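Exam revision sheet. Question 4 asks you to relate a sequence to its structure. Input first:
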Amino acid sequence: MIAKKKADKVVLAYSGGLDTSVILPWLKETYGYQVIAFAAELGQGDELQGIKKKAMATGAVKCVVKDLRQEFVEDYIWPMLKSGAVYENGYLLGTSIARPLIAKYQVDVAKQFGATAVSHGATGKGNDQVRFELTYMALAPELKIIAPWKDPNFKLTSREAAVDYAKKHHIPIEQSKKKIYSRDRNLWHISHEGADLENPANEPKDEMLVLSRPISKTPNKAEYVEIGFEQGTPVKLNGKKIDGVKLIETLNAIGGVHGVGVADLVENRLVGMKSRGVYETPGGTILTTAHKALEMLCLDRETSHYKQQVALKYAELVYYGQWFCTLRESLDVFINATQKNVSGSVRLKLFKGRATLAGVTSPKSLYNPHLASFTMGAEYNSTDATGFIRLFGLPMKVAGIVNRQTTSMKRGKK
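Answer key, structure tokens:
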């Protein structure tokens, strides 16, 4: 008697949301895979409650849940914060920065249990498909990649169809056809896409917000927070040492009360289209604002200006899913060098959706009050500026002379 071949194993990045909830049984019934569900704890609240039970009940042979919050903060969020990366002037990259970490551990689980494939629930229109798959390719090129939303056998062409599939297969989901936002949440943010947001003319509904209060319901009195940094890394809150995970959680709560960090953006996706999303990043907005203010005090002009260029590229690398590439690792070396003197305290005022600077101090400050003062003193000889301006402006002066002569010659010909 010939023994029946054992089914191959696939590790699915499993969140328990709509997409992965239907993909898990689909992988089993369509291709006969043994599905190992992998869920990463990244600070998404109570979303992982009961996730093992749900995964097993819908066909998984195993469900692995790993708490990655500390690594997420220390090895992903803090380097990104120090880089100054912001995508298209508003997106603080909350979803983008998490995907490489999830995919990295997904690969580890695949190796641990002898899986031949990895899978994700990202759609064929989104950025996440790229982020997951580039990480798989970088860390385990031998693994097969299964992306159901791009599979011709996957007939669920919309989130509404996925809701119908879930009902038919008795899969518990939170979404309904009336409550169908696509959301992604972790320590750094929560994103909202789809439904009424697909029309940029629609104002986001107040009831959509999760981490933040609508501005109309925020306090009429400002609140102040003080963030302490050591070499670019935030380490203190209001004068007290605090670990990174707790710091972000606390700032999310404080900032959310004041409606800080809600961004409504139409952005350019990597795959070529524009998309609209609403992002809540209260703690991240506070930290980004504070870090930028401290850098302005501690970095010299040339480093500061060049770092702005690096920040733009760093944001693209994160957004495009190129975390595990040589360029990002090389940029981190430069960024860490710039952060050696970025230490001090930043005080911010939180009020009606804004986090504004209320004071900054640093033992490494390059701000010299005597030099900056309007009062002339011995430390600055103003007559030096005369020769400097003459030489600095010489090319413009020569061009002005030439242009005037040319204009005069044209007038003479008339």
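Marking note for examiners. The CA atoms of residues 127 and 269 lie 6 Å apart.
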